[in-house]
């Protein structure tokens, strides 16, 4: 497994040396995801952007830490971890649950007058597009089945029963956080917002993706890719061009 270059704290990882005077892109993982999920994207952007990736508690080298079970607490801690990196403009990219975390962290930065230059929300319905979900209440086998269904987990991991059982507590914490999240009625950002979605994503309808328009007072754009919930794994180069542009 690829080892991240440390940035001096547990939350923020950098896979490649930061190029000077570059865009600083912060990536927020999906439920159950770890920082290394973004290694291919960081590599595609090497030299074009300083890519920082969040590592949530409860996974990889943070395995012994308890997972966070609310989006509010996750966003609060991520915000504090990212404040030292706001010495240059930040761009946020979140995938699935990471889109909501990125949105809430952006709101916290804007509260203090330091909002991101752009917010990219991927593979997640709008904060106001509520759907009743209970994956976090399933037994371990139910969680594993959900991972298989979304096709975003390395097949080698799905075939390793012992390793799989090790990551389930973090996965359950993440699903608890995102499935119990309710956006505030006035939850908006001022930053330009680009939503990215797969045309066959079983978790996000076109209407739910477009509903993000109500959550920014800035410019809005919607980009649709071929693929499902993890469409981005097949569109790394195209995605890197959008994020590094």
UniProtKB/TrEMBL annotation:
Keywords: Hydrolase. SMART domains: PKS_TE. The keyword S-adenosyl-L-methionine does not apply. Residues 26-213 form the Thioesterase TesA-like domain. Pfam families: Thioesterase. Gene3D superfamilies: alpha/beta hydrolase. GO terms for biological process: lipid biosynthetic process. This is Thioesterase. It comes from Streptomyces misionensis.
